[in-house]
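From the methods appendix. Each design record in this collection lists the tokenized structure first, followed by the designed amino acid sequence. Records were kept in a plain field format so they could be parsed without special tools. The example shown here is representative of the layout used throughout.

RECORD:
FOLD TOKENS (334 positions):
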């Protein structure tokens, strides 16, 4: 007659049997997983895939369009029309064809700028001529700033700068000065952004770019700015430097972006477009960037000339005035 097995031995053997049965059943279950279940199980323990970096390759291309020769190289958009100014002539551009609408006594170095009243201003020497929306030239005025180097119409005000160093807000009908500032001798450039007027001057002893608050009459230097082509859009101001294009937010003067290109020849912004012309091995290239952060949008494309005198731009199109060829060429985004 056999001796009964002690109780603690029976419990040990029972636990061993249960463990073996569980392992065996688990093995059978894993062998019957569907491929979809197996991939789901492996993803639960695998490391997450790396985040894909945003490409810096422009998503669009630029192409050259219509070319208009012998009508000048000063170009501007105003009153829904593209205007071209040449020595003594003012033309409109329609479907790539220039039509002379007025003639006058301005030089080949005259300035063409958008106006608050009518369509545009023509500046030559010490004089300003208003241009109506139909291209009729009005009576000239002579602001007391000396030879005019820049004109800006923004927020209901007309600003002119003279090469002698005076910046003036003027009455557009009489030319009389309403407010004036002295910001140093040299040539000027303007940009109107977020209610401010940004003024760039080549005066070596003063700040390169100054932010003017017309409501308060106060000026603030833009930190770290340098003299070069300048434009503004989307609450930001962009200017060219020796090693690219830099940006500040108009209200805070906080840095907001940088574009690494060769020393820019021209910068023009409007809406959601920042156009930059710069030298390259092909001559002069034009590229399109996002004015919010400088991200490339389209281009570059080689221009058929090297001296960029002016640009009139929109979100998708730029008319570029080439001073060395007295030509205006159209560039469009595909």
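DESIGN:
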């Amino acid at each position: 007659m056999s001796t009964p097995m002690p109780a603690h031995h029976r419990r040990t053997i029972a636990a061993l049997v249960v463990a073996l049965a569980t392992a065996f059943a688990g093995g059978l279950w894993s062998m019957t997983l569907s491929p979809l279940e197996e991939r789901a199980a492996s993803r639960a323990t695998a490391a997450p895939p790396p985040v894909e970096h945003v490409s810096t390759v422009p998503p669009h291309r630029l192409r050259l369009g219509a070319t208009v020769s012998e009508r000048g190289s000063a170009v501007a958009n105003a009153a829904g029309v593209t205007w071209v100014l040449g020595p003594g002539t003012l033309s409109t551009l329609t479907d790539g064809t220039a039509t002379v609408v007025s003639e006058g006594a301005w030089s080949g170095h005259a300035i063409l700028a958008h106006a608050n009243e009518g369509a545009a201003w023509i500046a030559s020497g010490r004089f300003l001529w208003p241009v109506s929306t139909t291209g009729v030239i009005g009576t000239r005025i002579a602001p007391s700033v000396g030879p005019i180097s820049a004109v800006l119409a923004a927020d209901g005000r007309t600003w002119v700068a003279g090469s002698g160093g005076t910046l003036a807000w003027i009455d557009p009908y009489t030319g009389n000065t309403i407010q004036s500032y002295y910001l140093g001798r040299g040539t000027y450039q303007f940009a109107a952004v977020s209610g401010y007027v940004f003024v760039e001057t080549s005066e070596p002893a003063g700040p390169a770019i100054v932010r003017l608050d017309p409501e308060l009459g106060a000026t603030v230097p833009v930190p770290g700015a340098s003299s070069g082509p300048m434009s503004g859009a989307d609450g930001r101001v962009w200017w060219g430097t020796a090693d690219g294009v830099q940006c500040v937010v108009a209200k805070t003067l906080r840095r907001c972006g940088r574009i690494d290109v060769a020393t820019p020849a021209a910068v023009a912004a409007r809406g959601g477009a920042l156009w930059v012309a710069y030298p390259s091995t092909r001559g002069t290239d034009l590229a399109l960037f996002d004015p919010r952060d400088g991200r490339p949008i389209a281009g570059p494309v080689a221009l058929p000339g090297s001296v960029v005198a002016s640009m009139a731009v929109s979100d998708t199109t730029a008319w570029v005035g080439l001073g060395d060829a007295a030509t205006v060429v159209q560039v469009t985004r595909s």
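APPENDIX NOTE: The first strand starts at residue 62 and ends at 69.
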